[in-house]
Design goal:
- The structure holds 3 protein chains of 3 kinds.
- Chain A is mainly alpha-helical.
- Chain A folds into 3 domains: 2-220, no CATH class; 314-596, ABC transporter involved in vitamin B12 uptake, BtuC (Orthogonal Bundle), CATH 1.10.3470; 601-630, no CATH class.
- Chain A has 26 helices and 4 strands.
- In chain A, strand 1 and strand 2 (140-143) form a beta hairpin.
- In chain A, helix 15 runs antiparallel to helix 21, helix 23 packs across helix 25 and helix 25 (598-614) packs antiparallel against helix 26.
- By secondary structure, chain B is an alpha/beta fold.
- Chain B folds into 2 domains: 2-149 and 287-363, 3-Layer(aba) Sandwich (Rossmann fold); 151-285 and 364-388, Response regulator (Rossmann fold), CATH 3.40.50.
- Chain B contains 13 helices and 14 strands.
- Chain B has helices spanning 2-24, 43-62, 82-95, 107-120, 150-163, 177-193, 212-221, 233-245, 262-265, 289-302, 308-327, 332-339, 393-399; strands at 30-37, 70-77, 100-103, 124-126, 143-145, 168-172, 198-203, 226-229, 253-260, 277-280, 343-346, 349-352, 364-372, 375-384.
- In chain B, strands 7-6-8-9-10-13-14 form a 7-stranded mixed β-sheet, sandwiched between helices. Chain B has a 5-stranded parallel β-sheet with strand order 2-1-3-4-5, sandwiched between helices.
- In chain B, helix 2 crosses helix 11 (308-327) and helix 11 (308-327) packs across helix 12.
- The termini of chain B are far apart.
- Chain C folds into 2 domains: 3-80 and 164-251, Rossmann fold, CATH 3.40.50.300; 91-158, no CATH class.
- Chain C has 9 helices and 10 strands.
- In chain C, strands 6-7-8-3-9-10 form a 6-stranded mixed β-sheet, sandwiched between helices. Chain C has a 4-stranded antiparallel β-sheet with strand order 2-1-4-5, with helices on one face.
- In chain C, helix 6 links the parallel strand 7 (166-170) and strand 8 (198-202).
- Classes of the chains: A mainly alpha, B alpha/beta, C alpha/beta.
- The interface between A and B is large, with 78 and 71 residues.
């Protein structure tokens, strides 16, 4: 009996930690609709700051500790506020999710800044004065600090509840969470509301991090290790619902505490399994309301136009120039270009569902990875050669997308995105664990191309044909009735249904189609690298593709092509430098601020501007709006 | 603040060394060597490593270099991603024209680069990856591994564990290949030495995401007499904290892999557990003349004590240079031929590369953890030669693929 | 020729509140039928049961003898029922013409075509439909730029694309300027006058209702309380009772709610 109680208390203590970080994320999303990747970084900063403060104030005893924790939380709040005012505020009108790119840049910057300031070594902070021991409850030792955390979680929940229900500010926050468009209509000072919500959310993240000091060593992995779980908690609870986040945190932590007794390996994917189950049953999370998944209202996209002759010429020229590269260039350039081609196809396939289809995916790497693994597995276990493997792979990824897509298209907005992420994480978990078949973490090696394609030049041409072909197919589909109707469903599901379209089925097929082509990118990658590892399936792989699409500009078909090329080329260049993440983060922020409509948008503005210079009298602004060639 | 300044200066210095000699020596003939490691993904382990090989490079070059030429290391960050590592390897080989590759920390990146080396017929000295697949199940002609195998270190610990008067064991290891290999090797070795042992509980927390409270509770519930721990880094700190608070380690023996390495031991500070049997590196406590000279040079150069990574980094480049001298050229086949039975006189003692499985016999230190003057240390340690714990060369050869 | 639509004993409750009670009526081919009633009378509920968005608790809806109850909206559409929305629903990222083309593409079951150029399909037919409603000049404008009245008209063109037997128009003139209302309803009346399509519409603007409808159904509290021509309805005491408690409201214009 005592044993199970102790296990429950352990779970509850973890739940409090998880809740603190998740509730900040939920508040920020609820009000501003920003998917804040930097939230984990704020959490980490809170831990580092409080390590420094608490260590310096250790002479003051309990006052020093709790004072240090609170001051760190507030400092993180101020940092969050600066981020909001200096960067995010400028891009609220950008297309949905674009702010996510900025927060990704901030995450990179904070990672390197923390490394420079606090060093690479893990830092073990002091324990909380007066709470550094364990007490016996029913004979089981329970750390006093765990008991403190169990109290702190609900207290914070109570305070937030009071703020939300007893203050005008809180009422506005709730209104904004439920109906994003209402806020503008209410005549509320939106900037102030957003800034204050971001401040509060960041304080909570900082507090969550600061309170971890007595439990774990502060380290540079804290940001990424927490952000996934925090999102899961927010989504299970319902985006924007603080109470929901609390229930979800308790659910996950307590389940985990007991699950490790029975099936220790489960921790790896448990949160994602719970999330998937909850979302299948409740599409808006436990306490989320319909509408909470929708992003900020965005300007409608301009109609798709076929490329004008000049554009078609330019595209053709790019392909021809690429085809001529091997004549003039060294092997390495081709290797880099193969990586660019793979990224372009991968991003274009994601764009098909995200841009054209309006379906957010945080887990597109699943299909890339299934393609890569399918190829590697048939090579390893069936001894097939490259060409059959290249046929099997897209079929396998298409099937995977068919299965997961069936569940995913039932949801929308960020919930849909998170369910795709759960699917990807589950695939990753299986691949990672199933050592006998997939090699687990050691992956599958020896997946090299057939003899005729093994030279850099030959493989480059093969990759060029497959990737350019895949991109062509995606573009063709986007201009065809299939893609048009997909866009139609994105614009208005009601209208699509009213002209006889089975919208779910159509989206499902689009998801499968995009998954198939992601698998094609995956197999090209597998043979280019000669090996496949679970890394191709993990979150950061999905996020990279997401950043490419958003950075390029989600509203044009050209966007993912530009975004992927620029992303891979910059990354390949910048990683040569010391503190490259800092520099890369700055570059991303620069691009975000200069081109809130993405690279493609900036390019078309530039072209329109140049055109106006050459042919005075053209209305540049109008050109930019309507001349968006795709 | 002090800490910050020294760190920044040393980082700046680090940046400078990478670049300066290259430019200064560009006119003269140099031998270029490519280094790939997870510098941003795992700085805690790779920074000392970089400092180690930098020191070796400077030492070697000061003594006239190799084959009359200066060594130039082109160092790149793999960002923790195997596919990026492959691209970098390709660039180092085909663009920079490096004579060989060395480095990598993560097992999967080590394996990816090793397979790349096989495909492109390049000599690759895997410095740090712990996975044993790299020498055995996925071993190849072009890849040699320096650091003692997971198998080796687990066997060293099993030998100590067999001496303990306990039979009920529990294990806790990160849930990925390294953790699984380490547990499997330990179990096999211990059962061989002491057939009556039983393993009553296994915990597999996700790497760097341990739920320490729940894990500790689950271990406690099984009431083992001893625990074999493979967690490291931030997981280890959490595990130690929760474990000591909840009395998990009271009256229990703990055997712990790598925990004696300063990278993992130092952060524990005054919470360093007492009397754990560990593998690791006792640093400046090693009083052999070779090691003292190395430690002094390292401290003079970087202003801090050497860590395990420093030794691995130093020995890697030293082994590469020794191989080139023996081969008399930087031709791949000549270097590969030289690697077999190549003896390297390292600051940590002499070791050699086995011809059968390309594993070095570099050993590890086995001892106990203790707090000495408020600082975590390894005590009662002894150096165990890797050669004594590896399977015989005939056995090892059978573990490798036929080709 | 018999009835296009036969509605029998349609009922629907929401959590104990009976929104529609036992509504029955017929519709002839080429008939222009108005469904009116005060707010909350059950017009929209009734409408949504006709086009498949809501499933009635009891009753039947037969289109040319085929049962519509239990069939999802998209299939109801395929069986020959077009509709327009109270608040317009169009594809905002497409041009006016493309919006009509999409309906035609769907009607011809080509939405899974991966290769043809969507903008080149059924262009002439789509243009003809736009000409019919007088929007040909705006064919290539992005839908997002259109005035609200134009969107309403566009919806009419979309709804006619598959040559339906029945057209359901939910408050077709809501949110439009008075002169636009007259134009739109005149246009609809002209289309009805060709004799193929039958129309049911709900409406607040009584001028519109009396000016164009052939027959009027009056709903109150979910029940059909009157049925007849404009004159009959005007004269109906019960209807007058319901609207403004016996006053003669029918000369007063209700302002359309936006």
């Amino acid at each position: 009996m005592g044993f199970y109680l102790a296990q429950l208390l352990t779970g509850l203590a973890n739940a409090s930690s998880l809740f603190l970080i998740a509730c900040g994320l939920s508040i920020i999303f609820g009000v501003t609709r920003i998917v804040n990747f930097a939230h984990g970084s704020f959490y980490m900063l809170g831990a580092y700051l409080s390590y420094t403060l608490v260590t310096h104030l250790s002479a003051l005893g309990a006052l020093g500790f709790w004072g240090g924790v609170l001051v760190s939380a507030l400092l993180v709040g101020v940092i969050g506020l600066l981020v909001e005012v200096l960067i995010l505020r400028r891009i609220y009108r950008a297309p949905e999710l674009f702010q996510l790119v900025a927060t990704f840049g901030i995450l990179l910057i904070i990672e390197d800044a923390a490394l420079a300031i606090w060093g690479a070594q893990d830092l073990l902070g002091p324990r909380a004065p007066g709470l550094s021991k364990a007490v016996r409850i029913l004979g089981e030792p329970i750390p006093q600090y765990d008991l403190a955390l169990i109290v702190i979680g609900p207290v914070v929940l109570g305070l937030i509840w009071l703020i939300f229900h007893r203050t005008r500010w809180g009422v506005l926050v709730r209104a904004a969470t439920q109906d994003r468009e209402m806020v503008g209509a209410l005549g509320v000072n939106q900037a102030l509301l957003f800034s204050s919500a971001f401040f509060l959310g960041s304080v909570m993240a900082g507090l969550g991090g600061a309170l971890q000091i007595p439990r774990e060593a502060v380290n540079l992995n804290m940001d990424l290790s927490v952000i996934g779980d925090a999102f899961v908690v927010v989504v299970i609870g319902g985006m924007g619902s603080v109470t929901g986040a609390f229930i979800a945190a308790v659910l996950i932590s307590v389940l985990n505490a007991f699950a490790v007794l029975v099936f220790p390996q489960i921790s790896l994917v448990l949160p994602f399994i719970v999330m998937a189950l909850v979302l299948v049953v409740r599409p808006y999370g436990l306490l989320g309301k319909p509408g909470s998944e929708k992003g900020a209202p965005a300007d409608p996209e301009a109609p798709l136009r076929p490329l004008n002759p000049a554009g078609r010429l330019a595209m053709g020229a790019v392909v021809v120039i690429l085809a001529l590269v091997p004549l003039v260039s060294a092997d390495f350039t081709m290797i880099l270009l193969v990586d660019v081609l793979i990224a372009v196809l991968f991003a274009a396939s994601l764009h098909f569902i995200m841009g054209t289809g309006g379906m957010i995916s945080f887990g597109h790497a699943a299909y890339f990875g299934v393609g890569a693994y399918a190829a590697a597995l048939v090579v390893k276990w069936l001894g097939l050669s490259m060409v059959p493997a290249m046929i099997v792979a897209p079929v396998a990824s298409g099937l995977a997308a068919l299965v997961f897509g069936w569940f995913c298209v039932r949801l929308s907005g960020v919930y849909l995105g998170m369910l795709t992420l759960a699917a990807a994480q589950i695939v990753w978990g299986v691949t990672f664990q199933w050592q006998d078949v997939t090699g687990g973490d050691d992956g599958i090696i020896g997946v090299w191309p057939a003899k005729w394609a093994s030279s850099e030049t030959a493989y480059f041409y093969l990759a060029l044909v497959l990737c350019a072909g895949g991109v062509w197919l995606l573009r063709r589909a986007a201009h065809a009735p299939f893609g048009y109707m997909l866009r139609g469903i994105r614009d208005s599901e009601i209208r699509a249904e009213a002209i006889g379209v089975d919208t779910r089925f159509h989206q499902w097929m689009a998801f499968t189609f995009a998954g198939t082509l992601a698998g094609l990118a995956g197999v090209v990658s597998a043979f280019a690298k000669g090996s496949v590892f679970p890394d191709v399936l993990n979150i950061s792989s999905s996020i990279d593709a997401l950043i490419m699409v958003l950075l390029g500009g989600i509203h044009t078909l050209l966007g993912p092509l530009l975004g992927a090329s620029v992303f891979v080329l910059i990354e390949s260049w910048v990683t040569r430098l010391e503190y490259w993440r800092f520099i890369f983060g700055l570059i991303i922020l620069g691009v975000v601020l200069i081109a809130p409509d993405g690279l493609a948008g900036a390019l078309s503005r530039l072209l329109a501007f140049l055109k106006a210079r050459i042919r005075p009298g053209t209305d540049t602004k109008k050109e930019a709006l309507h001349g968006q060639r795709s | 603040m002090m800490k910050r300044r020294t760190l920044l200066t040393s980082m700046a210095a680090l940046g400078a060394v990478g670049a300066l000699p290259a430019r200064l020596l560009a006119q003269g003939a140099t031998i270029k060597i490519g280094d790939i490691n997870s510098y941003t993904a795992l700085p805690a382990f790779t920074e000392p490593y970089k400092k180690g090989w930098t020191l070796a490079m400077e030492d070697i070059n000061a003594k006239g270099g190799v084959l009359g030429k200066q060594l130039e290391v082109i160092s790149r960050d793999d960002t923790g991603d195997p596919s990026t590592a492959i691209r970098i390897a390709e660039e180092l080989v085909s663009k920079d024209g490096v004579a060989m590759l060395f480095g990598t920390y993560l097992s999967n990146i080590g394996l990816a680069v090793s397979d790349f080396a096989k495909q492109k017929e390049v000599f690759f000295l895997a410095s740090e990856p712990l996975t044993d697949a790299i020498i055995w199940s996925s071993g190849n002609k072009y890849t040699y591994r320096l650091r003692p195998a997971t198998y080796t270190q687990s066997s060293m610990l099993a030998e100590q564990a067999a001496k303990l008067d306990v039979t009920k064991w529990a294990t806790v290891a990160p849930n990925y290949a390294y953790g699984k290999d380490a547990v499997a090797a330990f179990k096999t070795a211990l059962k061989k030495l002491k057939p009556e042992v039983e393993f009553v509980e296994e915990q597999w927390p996700p790497v760097f995401k341990i739920d320490a409270g729940a894990t500790v509770r689950a271990l406690e519930a099984a009431k083992p007499e001893a625990i074999y721990n493979v967690t490291f880094g931030a997981d280890l700190a959490k595990f130690v904290r929760e474990g000591s608070l909840r009395g998990l380690f009271d009256d229990r023996s703990v055997v712990s892999l790598l925990t004696g390495e300063p990278e993992y031991l130092d952060p524990l500070g005054d919470e360093c557990p007492d009397g754990w049997i560990v593998t690791g590196y006792p640093g400046t406590d090693i009083k052999t003349p070779e090691h003292e000279a190395f430690a002094k040079a390292y401290i003079d150069r970087w202003g801090e004590d050497p860590k395990t990574g420093s030794v691995v980094g130093y020995n890697s480049l030293l082994a590469a240079a020794t191989a080139m001298e023996k081969a008399g050229s930087t031709d791949t086949d000549a270097m590969l031929a030289a690697m077999d039975e190549l003896h390297v006189k390292a600051p940590t003692g002499e070791f050699y590369f086995r011809a059968a499985d390309h594993q070095s016999t570099m050993g590890a230190w086995v001892g106990k953890t203790a707090l000495v003057d408020g600082k975590p240390k390894m005590i009662d340690w002894s150096y165990e030669d890797g050669a004594d714990f590896l399977p015989s060369e005939e056995e090892a050869a059978k573990l490798r693929p036929a080709s | 020729m018999g009835n296009v639509l036969e509605v029998r004993s349609l009922s629907k409750s929401f959590g104990g509140i009976r929104a529609v009670r036992d509504v029955s009526f017929d519709l002839k081919r080429g008939e222009f039928l108005a469904l009116i009633g005060p707010n909350g009378a059950g017009k929209t509920t009734c409408f949504n049961m006709l086009n498949g968005y809501l499933r009635p608790d009891t009753g039947s809806v037969k289109l040319l003898g085929r049962e519509l109850v239990g069939i999802p909206p998209r299939k109801v559409w395929r069986m020959g029922v077009g509709r327009t929305f109270q608040i317009t629903e169009t594809f905002r990222s497409m041009t006016v013409l493309e919006n009509v083309q999409m309906a035609l593409i769907s009607h011809n079951r080509r939405i899974f075509d991966l290769f043809s150029k969507a903008t080149a399909l059924y262009r002439d037919e789509a243009l003809k439909l736009l000409e019919l409603i007088g929007m040909a000049a705006q064919a290539d404008r992005p839908c997002a730029e259109l005035a609200y009245g134009d969107l309403k008209q566009l919806e009419l063109a979309i709804a006619l694309a598959h040559d339906p037997d029945l057209l359901l128009m939910d408050e077709p003139t809501a949110g439009m300027a008075p002169n636009e209302r007259i134009a739109l309803m005149q246009l609809t009346a002209d289309i009805v006058a060709r004799g193929h399509v039958s129309v049911i519409f709900t409406e607040h603007d009584m001028d519109v209702v009396f000016a164009h409808s052939h027959r009027i159904l009056v709903l109150n509290r979910g029940e059909l309380i009157a049925e007849g021509t404009g004159d009959e309805i005007r004269a109906n005491a019960l209807v007058q009772e319901v609207y403004l408690g016996g006053g003669s409201l029918f000369h007063e214009k209700e302002t359309a709610h936006a």
